[in-house]
Amino acid sequence: MANQERIIPSAASIAPWLSVSSAAKALEFYKAAFGAAELYRLEEEEGRPLIAELAVGGASFWVQEDSESRGAGGSGGGPVRMILTVNDPDGMHRQALMAGANEIMPVGEGHGWRIGRIADPFGYHWEIGCRLE
Question: Would you state the pLDDT for residue 66?
Fold first, then answer.
């Protein structure tokens, strides 16, 4: 590897991309559950969203319409689990449940975190928590 230069980007990020069976319903859910802001949207001619970028605080993720989507309950999901780090995990957890999420684990403390887990209506699991000091 002598004389080879490594390119190191000055800024990089990784954003999850979720395939769901109904992007319109997913966008509504994530906005209601997490207060997500829509940053970008690509629509079909009929106005249905195909792809959208959402952000919760400074953390962004993508949602894609995928009629072939299969996972938990045949409605998306799969092996990806999200972690959403927020200042008030109890409040965000309650908000997600009120928006239609299912509780997998109530918010509690362990391993230096206050954290709980929900499953969204599309089969994805979201850990919602904050580090304890």
Answer: 79
CA angle 111, 114, 116 (to 5 degrees): 105
CB contact at 8 A, 47 and 91: no
Task: Tally the C-alpha atoms within 13 A of residue 119's C-alpha that lie toward its C-beta.
Answer: 15
Domains defined along the chain, listed by start = 17-67+75-131 (3.10.180.10)
| pLDDT tens-digit map of 26-63 | 999 999 999 999 999 999 889 999 999 999 998 999 99
φ, ψ of residue 79 to 5 degrees: the values are -80, 0
Q: How far apart are CA 57 and CA 71, in angstroms?
A: 27
Structure tokens at 69: 């989507």
